[in-house]
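Q: Got a minute? One more chain.
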Amino acid sequence: MLKGLAITPPVVGRISIGRVIERNGKRLPEKDDQFTITTQVQNREGWILHPLDEALRRESGGKLRSLPIRLLFNDPTLNFRSTYSLFDRGTGRPLCVGNGESCRRAGKERVETLPCVGPDTCPFAEGNCKVYARFAVVIGDEVEDAFGTFVLRTTSFNTVRTLAARLQYFDAVSGGRLATMPLELRLRGKSTAMSFRSTIYYVDLTVRSGLTLEAAIEQARATDLQRKERGYDQDALDLAAKRGFANGDFEEAEDDVPSVIEEFFPEPGAAHQVQTSVTSGALSERLGKKLASP
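A: Always. Here it is, folded:
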């Protein structure tokens, strides 16, 4: 294994709740009220849709506000990787990644381990560090590639806090059987004082539609037992993943970072322009009513 190279779950596609649009010659992130599933390939119009997007959209009646998923690992922190991250907006490379206690910071000659004080008071970041998370999931149950994941990347504090809590809770009540729990990603809306009462969207994690929590746990126990009888070693898989993540200084591959910068770290002023365009007046109210309807 090459040292310095983080070995992460194989990625076959992306999950987003927005898109990148071109306005006045600039590419800006625009939020949406539904999920979009894409491949890892872009053209001039943007990311190319994955075949699963069309299939699941037909089943849902047009809008993708929930996705049936399962997880690769039992350890919540292997499925959901969240950090405080500072990127170089010129090169797209990570400069500093921390967890609020310690950080890995790229220097001129080497990567150093230093104390992390968080994004609000860090003199090095100067306000440009933010929470950044990746959630790797398998969509559906009948898949040809058992380890091929779709990645949801987010800088939403609401999404990060909600997913972290849900994973911890499901891990606890299932007896550490996250990898066999039948789960579902759901898009939810809320209004806050900071959003000026306009609707903002975040991602939640629940058991599959039609299942109670108790039924989902029973199914997870049965699937876990079946896997063990067939020789599936989940503990070894979690250990291999943990070693792979620890093998590199930074998790993001160099060719992935430019798209991350474009989507989550737009040019100064761009975020305000996009926020204004997607949360204005009647449109926001209509989207909120649609999301709240059964």
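A: Confidence is low (pLDDT under 50) at residues 268-294.
Q: Perfect, thanks.
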